[in-house]
Amino acid sequence: MRTRLIGLALAGLGLAVGPNLAARAEILGDYLGYRACQECHAEIVASWQKTPHAHAFAGLKRQGEEKQGIPGCVRCHVVAFEQDGGFIDMGLTPELADVQCEACHGPGKKHVEAGGDGQIVAKPDANSCRVCHTEGQDKNFDYQRKSKLVHDLAKGGKKGAK
Ligand code: HEC
Ligand code: HEC
Ligand code: HEC
Ligand code: HEC
Questions:
Q1: Does the residue 138 lie in any domain?
Q2: What is the pLDDT of residues 91-132, one digit of tens each?
Q3: How would residue 11 be classed by pLDDT, with cut points 50, 70 and 90?
Q4: Is residue 33 part of a domain?
Q5: Closest atom, ligand 3, to C-alpha of 147
Q6: Residue 104 and which of 91, 130, 141, 157 are 20 to 30 A apart at CA?
Q7: Is the pLDDT reported for residue 36 higher than 90?
Q8: Is 161 within the bounds of a domain?
Q9: What are the pLDDT digits (tens) for 53-84?
Q10: Atom 23 of ligand 2 has which residue's CA nearest to it?
Q11: Which domain holds residue 61?
Q12: Please, what is the Cα angle at 34 between 122 and 133, to 5 degrees?
């Protein structure tokens, strides 16, 4: 399992900002970030960008700049915090900040490599929301209502890519 220590080691070698693509691929693993979905799901990406999830990392600042560096805050405001291939910090994994597609649908690499043929969580269930929408954060979380708001499924909710 990749740990933050590896991230720190890479940062120490200066790989974080350098153009070392192999090292970047290794850090990101199976999580790609929403830009990898844009080509085939342009409408969903555009509508997700208008939701609070798309600004969840920036929003941390409202309670103080330092909050973006506190794991206890960051973990619910990014993709797959401290999981294999998930968000580490803004230096190493800026493309995984905010609550993006893969925070709910899981890692997208296999799906993208297969040209969209399955291999991704099709319908994230209430438990997947509850990882972040805990009793403490969102007492009366209502999956039926809120899952309609995560991207504009009411409008663009036909089956298939778009
Ligand atoms: C190369 C094009 C392509 C890319 C890139 C792509 N998808 Fe898809 N995706 C598709 C197609 C085509 C379907 C429709 C499959 C179907 O209707 O059974 C689909 C379906 C889905 C579904 C529904 C799955 C199901 O079984 O109903 C989800 C969720 C999804 N994509 C998420 C993503 C995410 C997240 C990304 C970015 C990490 C992404 N896709 C990138 C083409 C793509
Ligand atoms: C367990 C997951 C979790 C943790 C940990 C967490 N948040 Fe959040 N945060 C959420 C969820 C879920 C929402 C949306 C709640 C809602 O809609 O009722 C939210 C909403 C917010 C908002 C936007 C709404 C508002 O109140 O302005 C800010 C800002 C915020 N959190 C900051 C923080 C800060 C700062 C920390 C660390 C002290 C933190 N969060 C820790 C899950 C979390
Ligand atoms: C907060 C969680 C969440 C986020 C973030 C999210 N989704 Fe979804 N997505 C869902 C849920 C829940 C469903 C199933 C809705 C239903 O069927 O009632 C879904 C369904 C889908 C589907 C299949 C249904 C359809 O409209 O074709 C696709 C494709 C999809 N999401 C792609 C994406 C992409 C691309 C992104 C990022 C731009 C994204 N999702 C972000 C939760 C999320
Ligand atoms: C990785 C953590 C995470 C996951 C997983 C997640 N959310 Fe969120 N959600 C957040 C945070 C953080 C916010 C607040 C963003 C802000 O305002 O800055 C939020 C806000 C929202 C909002 C807008 C505010 C509100 O409460 O009405 C809705 C709707 C929502 N989430 C629905 C869902 C649903 C449905 C799922 C599961 C399909 C889900 N979320 C999964 C972290 C998460």
A1: yes
A2: 999 999 999 999 999 999 999 999 999 899 999 999 999 999
A3: very low
A4: yes
A5: 12
A6: 91
A7: yes
A8: no
A9: 999 999 999 999 999 999 999 999 999 999 99
A10: 59
A11: 4-156
A12: 60
Number of neighbours of residue 84 by Cβ within 10 angstroms: 12
Contact by Cβ (8 Å): 51, 101:
no
Q: Identify the CATH number of the domain in which residue 75 sits.
A: 1.10.1130.10
pLDDT at 13: 41
Ligand 2 test: best mutation among 127, 129, 137, 150, most atoms within 8 Å of CB? 137
Distance separating alpha carbons of residues 117 and 160, to the nearest angstrom: 10
Q: Which two tokens stand for residue 66?
A: 């330092």
Residue 28, in any domain of the structure: yes
Cα distances (Å, whole numbers) of residue 58 to 68, 69, 128, 159: 8, 12, 22, 32
Task: Decide: 34 in ligand 3 pocket, CB within 6 A.
Answer: yes
Provide the residue type at 99 as one letter: V
* Across 134-161, average pLDDT: 78
